[in-house]
Structure formats: C-alpha cells, structure tokens
Amino acid sequence: MNGLIIFLIILVLLVIGVVGWTIGAYNGLVRLRNRVQESWRQIDVELNRRYELIPNLVETVRGYAAHEHNTLEDITRLRNQAASLAAHEGATPSAQRAEAEEQLSGAVRNLMVSVEAYPDLKSNTNFLELQRALAETEDRIAAGRRYYNANVREYNTKTESFPTNMLAGQFHFEKAAYFEVNDVARTSPDVNFGEISYRGGQGGQQALPQQGSGTPAMPAGWDQGQQAPQTQPQQYDQPGQQQYGQPGQQNPQQEWPQNPQQ
C-alpha cells in the first residue's frame, strides 16, 4: 500500500512537471511570435511611408530627366507590386514580399545614382526634400530589419529545437521569414598603367614608353634638338677601383682605399 501511494505521488509530480513545462514552453513561443509580429509592424509602417513618397519622387524626376523613362516605369511597377502584396499579407511577411521589397530598394538606389547627371534636378527643392525623406525612411527600415531578423532567428531556433519543436508542430507555430535586403555590390575600379613598367635589378629605373620604331620616346617638354641623355653601365677593371666613361679609364678624383682600416 505504501509503495502504491509513493508511486502515485511520483506520477502526479511527473504529470505536474510535464504540464508546467508545456505551459511554459507554449507561452514562450507565443511571446517570441508576438515579438516578431510587433517588430515587423514597425517595418511595415516605414514601407508604407515609402509607398507614399515614391509616386511624388517619380513625378519630380520625370519633369527633369525624361531619359530615365525605363527606370521610372520599373520603380512604379515594383512599388505597385509590393503594395499589392502588403495588402494581402498577414502579421508577418512572406518570402515573396521580402523579394519584392528588395527589388524596390535596389530600383530606388539606382534612380538616386542616375540623377547625379542632372544638376537642375539636384538643386530642385522638392526633390531634395523627397530625397531626404526617403533617406530617413531607408535608415529606419534598415534598423527595424536588424531588430526583426534577430527576433526571427530566436523564434525559429525555438520552433526547430527539441523538444519545443514537437509543441510548435502541434500548435501550428510556423517558421517566420527573414526580411533581408542585399547591399549593392561594390567593385574596385580597374587601374590601367598603360606602358609604364619598372625594370628589375636596375635600381627602380622607370622605362620610357616605346615609339613605333622601338626608340624610347622623349619626356614631355624635351627639345627635339637636344641630345638624349645616354646611360652607360658601370664597369670595373680592377677590384676596388670604380671606372667611368670608357672601359679602362680611371677617375683620378676617386679611388677606393686599398685597406679599409686605414
């Protein structure tokens, strides 16, 4: 009898422990999911603000840069596509929405780069105000994206880890999609030094560009009537004596001492 009572007590404690863990794990998943949804709503506000700014930006640029017709059409199309997806989505974004927003961000960046060729547009007060508002919006989107993705990572880790993954599957806690926008690739400019080269073992002398006949070209500003300087290699007849000019001719003003210690 006493053994049965002890067994029942242990069983009741185990049930209470499992129920307590289940409640705690469920509430933890709910809390993480709500945090993900809340952080996404902050981004969504800024995205909708960008939807409102883009039509004004397009009309302003159209009046000064008629050659950017294709770029403006692409921005308008991507803006309408992203706004349509936003109107039919739930509390968190889908991968399709994230891709549309990424393409829209890239199109806006390309437009801002292309308008550098239009000085009149860059001095337009309305355009400058729109540019400033878009820059602030993009900064807030970037900050909100980092916070949102951090919450998504924590939530997805919980839904995929054992044993909470069994609870997540039972109560339909689905994985959240990341909202990522890839930065524009930065490439280094190609540097072409033409025919400039350096001779190895010649003390770093710079070679002159060659003309068609193979004769070294004269430096800029060189008088054609002057004789080009001749460079002759140094020759040595005997150890310790440095020769100049013709072979065998000694410089009387300079001799190396025969005994370095003297």
From TrEMBL:
Transmembrane segments: 6-29
Alphabetical list of SUPFAM superfamilies matching this protein: LemA-like
PANTHER family in the record: MEMBRANE PROTEIN, PROTEIN LEMA
DNA-binding keyword on record: no
Pfam families assigned: LemA
Subcellular location: Membrane
Name this protein carries in UniProt: LemA family protein
Family stated for the protein in its record: Belongs to the LemA family.
Superkingdom per UniProt: Bacteria
Gene3D superfamilies documented for this protein: LemA-like domain (1.20.1440.20)
UniProt keywords, alphabetically: Membrane, Transmembrane, Transmembrane helix
Mode of membrane association: Single-pass membrane protein
